[in-house]
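Batch 3, record 17
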Amino acid sequence: MDWNFIVFSLVKIAAVLGVLLTMVAYAVLVERKVSAWIQDRVGPNRVALPLVGALPVVGPLLTRLGFWQPLVDGVKAFIKEDFTPAHVRKGWFSLAPAVALIPALLVIAVIPFGSKLGGQQMVIADLNVGILYTFGIVSLGVYGIVLAGYASNSKFPFLGGIRSSAQMISYEISMGMSVIPVFLIAGDLNLSQIIAYQAGTLGGVLPNWLVFKAPLSFLIFLVAAFAETNRLPFDLPEAETELVGGYHTEYSSMRFGMFFMGEYAAMFAGTAMMVTLFFGGWTLPFWGLDKPAETLGMGLAHIGIFLAKMLALMLVFIWVRWMLPRFRYDQLMDLGWRKFIPLALANILATAVWLWMRK
Amino acid sequence: MIVKRTNLTLWERFYLPAILGGFKVTWRHFKNTLFRGKAVTMQYPEQKWVVPPGYRGAPYLVRDQDGDTKCVSCQLCEFICPPKAIKIIPPGPTGQIADRPNAEKMPREFEINMLRCIFCGLCQEVCPEEAIFLQQDYSLTGLARGEMVFNKDKLLALGGTHAGVQKWKHKLAEAKEQESFPVKT
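Prediction for the assembled complex:
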């Protein structure tokens, strides 16, 4: 084995996990703040750290923004009682949160989150079949929720589990088919190659991003991503107004926290996929930012660009949650099977025909 | 009533008008709250709401205009109290007499268990001496159950004086005047 490879991979994994989990924690804060502002409230504004809170201007500002809230939330999740109800199926019950969280983290492995930092490529695993791997892993995500619904052995989690399996299976089809035109256009399954294809500009005005070449694909992918991550308007597995909490009704403490983190990590994985496939990954079409970096500063800039694009899409996810009401179950299925799947198929056909005509 | 349900038009079935409308509403609230400070939240422990007159808060004993105890230990409030929150120990035949001239007695001990009290106001309504009033305190907290049983001294201290109702103010003078005959008016 190549020790260099192992050490650098471990470093990359640790760094990516650290950044991702921090972003998950702060996404929860952003969600709470944005929801508060949309609903005429102020949101979390109380937590102050002893020393930092005493700084003249910065301390009170951070407190008002709720900057330390994620820390307190995390501590709270850990020190709460981890209660296992007597009627659950114990083994599966403990397994489900891990199964829900891990696939979301695994997807990140193939995402190129930057070009180069020193001699290292900024991707944990540069697979040639990156996108197939992603869809394979993403479809595992449903098992965590189904397992939780089954293991909880009570009616609301059970209904949540059923809904989620039906929903995620339905939308995975349209999600998978929506990206085929992207690969037809780019001509490669490797995600780094797709980013390389999106360098430059489109007629000197727009960036050469695939969202402008395949807007319908992006739309279907976006909606399917909402459904896959169980976000409003498709949060039927949770549906707290009808199903109490859906699949995580019986969970408490950090086991509930893992479902929560899994949901947000899946959202970040979804936005990372969208940035890679449709928004040019770590590239920007000016100042030579669309070529692999040669200096350390450029490498860091690329990572920053990638994160900024992800956060912008994340904001879309969060905003939509507070904007649209939940779909009814039959509307959801109707939209998935009778609207998006035919639309995605037609999109593939149209793209293929257009590419064939141009040849 | 029959609600007419019209079918959605093609444009509406794309969900786009709903999304646009939703964005308009949420953006309006977002910018008003964030940039123009129109949040409706009251920062509770720092800001407090104005308690309206007639509010039924915690019941306290009041003193009259001379600072004397108004309660005469008749125990009507104790009997009418629906959750049995009030406990009165009367002075008994040998107990201390009232600290105001018109009354025969006053309670030796007067306890209200604020954990039982339902703030119904029946004690205030039934009191012939107007000695107990539901006042404006709505946030009663304590670290133990014992702390929430308010005794006579505490109730009198919290209640303050209630000079508005001075039922006995002129009664003593009137009674003195009636000692001599014929009665001067």
